[in-house]
Every structure is written in structure tokens, then in C-alpha cells.
Amino acid sequence: MSTTPTVRPATGPATGPATGPATGPATYVPEIALNQIKALDYWAFARWGVKDVLSFNGDTLQLNCARGRRILVTLDRGTDTYRISVGRVRNFEFRELASDTGAHAEDLVIAIDTLIERA
User: Fold this and answer.
1) Coil, strand or helix: which one is 26?
2) Which positions of the chain have pLDDT values less than 70?
3) At residue 54, what are phi and psi to the nearest 5 degrees?
């Protein structure tokens, strides 16, 4: 039995891998972000209290954590960096508590750790 979460696509029309003529055969960004985090720090998900992993619109990875916290990791395709948001959902509305833009793949775990401490 695997203890690491896998990406589960959210329901809706725009949940599959993104493809486009400008970028060629695009890859499934949430799966790549998930694998990059696991490669950098295998126990990061346990430390953050991740209960569920979702993906939205092909560019966003959502981590549902303990104590009602949510982490959104979104790829900025123009600069090949990630935007990370940590927040909570109240009354079906995401309230951002801390965010960081311009995080590179090798900085994902450190950036998320810092944002969780700030939030």
C-alpha cells in the first residue's frame, strides 16, 4: 500500500492534460509538480498534513491539508516558475493567507514550508 497521494483530477470540462500548438505536446503539470516535490523531500506531504491531492485546469495542483488549509501550486508557463498560495476555504471561497511567486522547481518544498510558517 502506497502512503503517498496521487493526483486525482477534479471534475469539470478542463481537467485533462493541456496541449497547444505554441508549446507542442504539453505535459500534465500537476503530476510533474507532485513528482518534483516527492523527489525533493519524500516526507513533505506528511509534514504538511496533506489529505487529498487534486488538479484543476491542467496548470494547478491543489493540496488539501489538515486543519482546513489548502495549498495551490500553479505553473506560470511564460517564466517556467510556480506561484504558491496557502489559504483556507470558508463559505466556498478561498481566502489566501500567504503567497509566493517566482518559485523554481528546486525551491518548491522550501517555499511551501516558509509559506505554511507564515500562514
Assistant:
1) coil
2) 1-27
3) -125, 160
